[in-house]
Amino acid sequence: MSDITVVHLMRHGEVANPDGILYGRLAGYHLSDLGRRMADRVAEHLATRDVTHVGASPLERAQETATPIAKAHGLDLATDARLIEADNVFQGKTFGVGDGALKRPENWKHLVNPFKPSWGEPYVDQVVRMMGALDAAKDAARGHEAVLVSHQLPIWIVRSYVERRRLWHDPRRRQCTLASLTTFTYQGDKIVSVGYSEPARDLVPPHLLAGAKPVKGKDKAFGA
Question: Keyword Endoplasmic reticulum, does the record have it (predicted)?
Fold first, then answer.
């Protein structure tokens, strides 16, 4: 058996969210038609890879993204609660570019410490659970490949930790586009490289691509 194992952390596809809600861990948010196309595209991209384990966050959008990948490889889909979206006090609200949220006094108490952060699940806690999910997938697929579907912030945080970057950051600078793959290669039990790819890039609206400049009225809460 090879001592090289590959674990792909995938961000889910686009979500149907016409009201621009920061949906966080709320139930009932499913992939849009475009999001399903993104999921199918990545399943096609990975169809010839040596994938022996597929897991996902318990949230619907992640489950729906992972399903065609598991199906393409004849695998059961494993649910791992450690892959869930980060908790956020603004869940269920609109909170984005141009909506005035930062000017509302009732929100200020949640914005006092961007380093922790004070508005949600601590970055360190996200690292612990995401590293646990990565290691479990590595063990399940040892010598082969695994795919785990999660959410933008936890993926970016665990990548930042592995690459030895600070955990606090400008959200606009996350390299984690919808349906992207952040790939961790293990030699034995050690991560030796991290890669990034966007198999469905041509399907992603330009303002939602990694590094795109936020557009007023279009970036309220998409694709967490």
Answer: no
